[in-house]
Amino acid sequence: MSTEPGLGATPGADEAVEGDESTTAAGPAGADGPTAGRTGAGDAQATGPRERATSGADDGDGEETGSPPASDGAPGGDGTAEAAKQSEAEAELAAQRIERDRIERRKAEKKGPIASGAGLSGQAADLLAAIRAVESGDRPTATVFAAPEPAPSPASAPDPVVQRPRPAPVEAAPAVEAVAAVRAVLAAGGAPESLAPQAAAVLGEGADDLLREDPWQLLRVPGVRPDHADGFARALLGAECGPGDERRGRAVTSWLLEQAALAGHTALEMPALVAALAQRAVPDPEAAVQDALAEGDALVFQDLLDPHAPEPEDDEEERPVRVLVGLERYALAEESLADGLARLVNSLSKDASQPWEAAVAAASGGAAELAAAVAGHGLVLHTGGEAARAEPAALLAAARSAGLRAFAAVHAPEGHHRPEAGETAGDADRGAGVGTVAGLLSGAEGPGRDAEGALDLDLLIVLDAPQLDVESAAMIVEALPDGARLVLSGDPAVLWSAGPGRVFADLLAARVCPQIASRTPDPGPLGELVSGIGAGELGQVEAPGKEIVIVPVRDAGEAVHRTVQLVADSVPRAIGVPAEQTVVITPGHGGAAGTRALNAALKERLNPGPGRFGGFDPGDRVAYSPAPGRTVPGQVVDADADGLRLSCADGPVVVPRERVEQAVRHGWALTAHQAVGARWPAAVVVLPGDAAQALSRPWVYTAFSRAGRHLSVVHGVEQALPRAVAETLPKPRTTRLPLLLGTQLAAASEA
């Protein structure tokens, strides 16, 4: 593994990547690695008190972007062409400045209202700051489209990619009158009026009356915390407001269960929920839970600790159970998933039909073992790394050639576009019969439905299966007809789903169906490095072709500078991977080296502009979130009255202007959770000193394995990296799927 010899001049980075003979091969954790012997090792932590830890969640701290990289004057460029390019850019910027000045003068003449929340103080100001911290992207909270909106002219559009775009699916906006009524209640309670559209949408018809009767219902709005809702309730209720109010206890119980779902739990054990309520100053936590259960806000379950234990001989003796509390939507999804999986397992004849025999005969190697298992079983699990994707791809091709109705679904649109791994993934992984899970569930992709509403399939292969949450998995299983085969394939070492549940891990642990482990290793130094991380070891790896480069940094500002240098100059010149095919991955959105700071610096270098479309310019790389937990990389094409026009892997998209601020971020830099399910030819993983607490083995494995040909690690966490790989496992999630599935299969076998 190659390291950069120097930290000072820009050419040092180029020399390290391009093959300076003074570089050494070492792993990031090796005793003789780049961070072991350099001076100023402790400087990496020097900025800790000033910077918040960059956790996987958006902590809202990231508006200061760190030190943007200076123009480094890297050698090798064409001076004349560069000067011409700068002249064109300067002319464009000058014209845009004139236009913005004209718009500002018109606004000043009209003496429009001040920005929402500008006059708030105290509790209301704190609430407004918290809401904006959660909801804001890497742009100021101003009008999304500051520039005049050009009239749409599809007939004269020069780029065919923007013709007939598909608007992003959104729920109907609440009525203007309903929003106004909610705004009045929020104002009376000292809450930010900007919450009105969200509150009206979340609470539904009569939201204003509901808030007056039960102010703690404000907790159902994303971003609102109990202390904020308490202040709102005090302002509305006065002396009637108290910590022991039953309405408060119910609302805080539901809020805690929602927070648990965001952390991946489908339910919470009763003692944990009671303890969390006590921490939120609920005087009688157990009574609060009972109130929530009585009102139907939550459900309670009693699951046997050992379902296989024999019945007690004494009738009065009770078998030990654990008491769980969960929200109805996730409880029903988990039960439906268990029921559907049991149906698939039990509805299949064990005798393979002639088409399946032909499919098995057409497969070879690891795919033949997988095909044989699928021929005789309704549910099969397949595990392996990137190279192992060739096996379900070959199974798909063999099944389709045998006349079977087969389809494969991936997590992200880029999941079946692997330009850097074509020699291992195979053409079938990118050919006919492949779509996304979201497209399959929405009906936009896939085989369509039969007369009974089931998917018209004999075989469904779901790749990137660790990304399935319980709701998506339940919808997939419910849609499969009796007798169909389901293959769940994925790498169990990557990060789990963004939504609640750990479906793939639960099924692997339950051992209710065949499990085929691929014996095809990922090739090259990158494959060796990632395989070691999966086993808990961050060792030294020889990288003669500069496949892996370690870039030591002392602080977050240097991390941002060196990252921009790598993406814009060193990697394109030395490795041959252009900037648009390189992804930057960092642990969180906030902090001095989070996605906001890195995207600001990368935009300044790669696509400078005034951000005339709500902070975006044509050509900007973006991360579009059509739904919570889903990230689709794309590029800004234009904007008009309909919204922001993007070009994404699965086609053109129009994001309505009211959703841009919540759904679109700049996308040169992503978190590992956003990047999972896709790969790029090159990846730059940024590990600033304040990121140590956010690292874990699955995070490091996921981030490093996004690279197809080249990986650069901007390293500032010292020995925290090998410790995280060796010791920090995924945080446990409380789920009920293994027990539910075991009960379903046991009941079916006894019937």
Tags for this model:
single chain, 751 residues, alpha/beta, six-stranded parallel β-sheet, six-stranded mixed β-sheet
Structural write-up:
This protein has 26 helices and 21 strands. It is α/β, with parallel strands linked by helices. The protein has a 6-stranded parallel sheet with strand order 1-12-21-20-13-19. A 6-stranded mixed sheet has the order 2-17-16-15-14-18. Strands 8-7-9-10-6-11 form a 6-stranded parallel sheet, sandwiched between helices. Strand 9, helix 17 and strand 10 form a beta-alpha-beta unit. Helix 13 (366-376) crosses helix 14. The chain is globular. The chain starts with a strand and ends with a helix. Residues 1-89, 109-121, 134-170 and 416-431 have low confidence and may be disordered.
Secondary structure blueprint with pairings:
Elements: E1 2-3, H1 10-18, H2 79-110, H3 122-135, E2 166-167, H4 176-188, H5 196-203, H6 207-213, H7 226-237, H8 246-262, E3 268-269, H9 270-279, H10 285-294, E4 299-304, E5 321-326, H11 328-346, H12 354-362, H13 366-376, E6 379-383, H14 390-401, E7 406-410, H15 422-425, E8 434-436, H16 437-442, E9 459-462, H17 470-479, E10 485-490, H18 503-510, E11 515-517, H19 524-534, E12 548-552, H20 556-574, E13 582-585, H21 595-606, E14 621-624, E15 632-640, E16 643-648, E17 651-655, H22 660-663, E18 664-666, E19 669-670, H23 672-675, E20 680-687, H24 697-704, E21 707-715, H25 720-727, H26 737-750
Parallel strand pairs: 1-12, 2-17, 6-10, 6-11, 7-8, 7-9, 9-10, 12-21, 13-19, 13-20, 20-21
Antiparallel strand pairs: 3-5, 4-5, 14-15, 14-18, 15-16, 16-17
